[in-house]
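Dear colleague,

As promised, here are the two records you asked about, laid out in our usual form so they can be pasted straight into your sheet.

NAME FIELD: protein one
SEQUENCE, THEN STRUCTURE:
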Amino acid sequence: MVSQQDVDRLKALFARIEEGSAGVCVMGSANVDYTVETERLPKPGETVSAGPLRILPGGKSANQAASAGKAGAAVTMLGMVGTDDNGSFLLSQLSDAHVDVSKVERFDGPSGSTVITVDAKGENTIVYSSGSNAHVSADYVEKNRDALDNTAVLGLCLESPIDAVIRSAQICHGNGVPVLLNDSPFVAELPQELVDNTDILLVNEHEMAQLLGLDINEDDLSPQSPYWRSVAAALEKFGYTRAIVTLGSHGAIAFEPGKAEYIPAVKVSAVDTTGCGDSFMGTILAGLSARLTLADSAWLASYVAAYAATGLGAQASYGTAAQITEFFAAMARQG
C-alpha cells in the first residue's frame, strides 16, 4: 500500500534530482521496438494471433537515458543510430525525454531493432538485431570523451561492442567518476578489465547467483535471510562493494560497504514489463548524479519501474516526475 508519506518522499527525491543533478552520461544502444500483444506467448513452431503492431522507441541504453531525463537529470547519450527513418525517430524520442543527443552519430545503414511479444500477463519475449549499435567503437568513445570527462556518473550495459564499453568505463573510472554497470544482456564471465573499471553492479537475483557461483532458492529472497551476508562477501571478492540486486516481486537489495538495505517492491497492476528494468537503472543514475544514496536511488527507482509496468512499451511507458508522483498520490488517496 502506498501512503502519503511515500508520496512526500517521492516528491522530495525527485526535487533533489531536478535541482542537483551534476550530469548523467549513458553510452550504448538505441533500438526501435516492434511490439505486439497476444493472449499468450507462442510455443516453438506455433503461430498465435496478435493485436496491432506498435513501433516504439527502445534499446537498453536509450531507455536508461530517457528514464534519467524524465526523472529530472541532465543526461547525455553516446551511441549510434542508422540513417533510416528509425534513426530519426529514436533521436526525436530521446530529445523529447530531455536527453542531449548531439553526440549520437548516424551510421550508414539500419538502426538497431527488437521484436517483442507481450502476453496478457505482461510477460514478454524479445529478439534483438544490433544494426547500427554494432558499429560503436572505442575510437568513437575517444572522439567523444569530453562527454565522459564532464559527467557525474556513467551508465553502461552490454548491448554495445565490449571494447567501447570498456573504454568508456576506463575513462570515467580513471577520472574518479562512478560507473554503474548493468550486466544485461547477461554475461556470466565479465572481462576483468571491465570489473576493474566499474564501481557499482546492477543485476537480478538469478544473474547474481550465476555470476558469483551461488545457489539461490525462494527462502533466500527474504530480506532477513542470512544468505545476503554471503552475497555481500562474494560480491566484494568478485570486485564490487556497491551493488543492487533486484528481486522481481520481492523488491531489491542495495549493498554499500558494510551494509545491505532492503527496498520493498511496489505493487501495481502490470500491463507490460518491457523496459521496467531499464527505467530502474536510469533512475539510479539520476539519483547518483544528485548525490542520493544508493538505497534512496533504488527506493525511488522501484516506484518509477512500477509506474512503467502500467503502460505498453519501454520509453513509451515512462512517466515524468510529476506524472509518477500524481499516479501514486491517487493510489494513496484511494487507500
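NAME FIELD: protein two
SEQUENCE, THEN STRUCTURE:
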Amino acid sequence: MAVKGLGKVDQQYDGSKLRIGILHARWNKKIIDSLVEGAIKKLQEFNVKPENIVVESVPGSFELPYGTKLFFEKQEKLGEPLDAVIPIGVLIKGSTMHFEYICDSVTHQLMKLNFELNKPVIFGVLTCLTDEQAEARAGLIEGKMHNHGEDWGAAAVEMCTKFN
C-alpha cells in the first residue's frame, strides 16, 4: 500500500497574512502531538507567523465538529478571525462499531462546516485500523510514512490563498 501524501504543491503560497487555527483531540496524545507539530512546521514554511497559529484542544474526535464551530466563533468575537481551521484527531478501530459511527459522523460534520462557515476546514482526522498505522501516518515510524500533519498545514494555506 502506497500512501504518497499531498504530493508536490503546485506553487509556493504565501501564508504571511493568515491566521490558522488548529483544534486537536486529546486522545492518542503521542500521535496527536506529532501531527500538530507537523502542521505547525508546514504552516511556518508557508510563512504563517507563529503568533497567527492558534492551538486549542477538545476531549476527543467526536467533539471536533462542534468545537471547530465554537473555535471560529470565539476568535471572531475576540476580533481575531481565523482564515481556516485544521481539526486534528485520531480514530483507531477497536472491537465494536464505535469506530465506524464516530468516523462517519465526524467526517460528514467537518465537511459540512466548510459550507456553513464559508471557511476552509481541513480534514485532519486519521481513521486507522491499528496503532501502527496511526503512528506511521504521524511520522513516528522511521521510513514508513510521512507526517500527515504537514499535508494538512499545506492544504490550509493553499485553500486560503489559491482562490482569492
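A couple of things worth noting about protein two: The chain has a mean pLDDT of 93. The radius of gyration is 15 Å.

Best,
R.
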